[in-house]
């Protein structure tokens, strides 16, 4: 074999190695691009999901409404309820207990002061973060004086947990449907303006022993621990507190 022939064979082998290396690099690069695209789509999936239809509401004018509270802050009975807007038990509580209380004489007579506390936890293992985004949106509605209207439209449109009922587009559509200034809302919503406040309320719940929602406290004591209190049960607890002077 001549030197030139050996050099030619060597060059051919080198060329094949380069081609194999290039194919490997292209395959790896393509896989990386696919993974990045999947991550982007999962992280921002709500941007690609249509708003769809949703239930509109007629906002209720709750008496003595102020931010996330309703009632006289000097009332003898102070109630705090920790809620997650995705929680089906919370919807049961809201529909059957909370709404009755908020329109009752306990509020109008200045006997009960009611405060909703944010406790988003159902989306802990979900990329969509629907519980946190719903809480975030409700706080942006609060900024415009419509927390309770937004609270009501969230529960009116609750669906499967982490199932897409509270995508960003839908949360924004809810805001528009109740007449919020969308420029202000979107600026607040897109920057997660109230994330620190939401986390502080969550940690307050943890320190008070909250492990799930809804958890209702009356003058610092849990009402029907582990269970969803009915209106009659909450009413009995209120009456007992009033009778004992709070």
Task: Summarize the structure in words.
The protein has 246 residues and is an alpha+beta fold. The protein folds into two domains: 3-43; 65-243, 3-Layer(aba) Sandwich (Glutaredoxin). 52% of the residues lie in helices and 11% in strands. It has helices spanning 3-43, 88-102, 105-108, 130-142, 147-156, 168-177, 182-190, 195-207, 231-243, and strands at residues 65-66, 69-71, 77-83, 112-118, 215-218, 221-223. Strand 5 and strand 6 (221-223) form a beta hairpin. Helix 4 packs across helix 7. The termini are far apart. The model is unreliable at 34-49 (pLDDT under 50).
Please name the CATH topology of the largest domain: Glutaredoxin
The 3D shape can be described as: elongated
Can you count the beta strands?
Answer: 6
Strand content bin: 5-15%
Termini separation: 106 Å
Count of alpha/pi helices: 9
Quaternary status: single chain
Class from helix and strand fractions: alpha+beta
Instruction: Summarize the biggest pleated sheet.
Output: 6 strands, mixed
Largest sheet, spatial ordering of strands: 1-2-4-3-5-6
Order of helices and strands: HEEEHHEHHHHHEEH
